[in-house]
Amino acid sequence: MKSLSIYDSPHSIAASLGKRLKRQRLNRDMTQAELGERSGTSRNIVKNAENGKVSLINLVAILQELGVLEHLDVFLYEPEISPLQLVKLKGKVRQRAGGTRKNAKEPVIGELLDW
């Protein structure tokens, strides 16, 4: 099987991942219906996953049942926060990315000192 490339289209990558799911299922000698039942999904969801069309929650359920969930850590690892970001956050956990506000006005010194 060929490696995935940044030059491949998203549809091509999804189809390739679906083929890999199918190979994992066949290596475990399972039918689509068996995998669907064991994973708490359905045969149609497994079929769609093997065609590259699956929701994230269903993909996780299928990967769990196939025993390959740990492979997610390889391609989608947990990034660490840099020491500089840690100092900036000062114990706060990032909830979302921030942007610059277009209408934000700078506070006047008197407002800061509560005069």
Write a structural description.
GO terms for molecular function: DNA binding. Residues 21-72 form the HTH cro/C1-type domain. It comes from Paraglaciecola chathamensis S18K6. It is built from 7 helices and no strands. By secondary structure, the protein is mainly alpha-helical. The chain has a domain at 10-75: lambda repressor-like DNA-binding domains (434 Repressor (Amino-terminal Domain), Orthogonal Bundle), CATH 1.10.260.40. The termini are far apart. The relative contact order is 0.09.
Brief account:
InterPro entries: Cro/C1-type_HTH, Lambda_DNA-bd_dom_sf. This is HTH cro/C1-type domain-containing protein. The chain has helices spanning about 10-25, 30-40, 45-50, 55-65, 70-75, 85-90, 110-115.
Name the CATH superfamily classification of the domain at 10-75. lambda repressor-like DNA-binding domains
SSE-based structural type: mainly alpha
What Rg do the Cα atoms give?
Answer: 23 Å
Order of helices and strands: HHHHHHH
Head-to-tail CA distance between termini = 71 Å
Query: What's the overall average pLDDT, rounded?
Result: 83
| Shape estimate | elongated
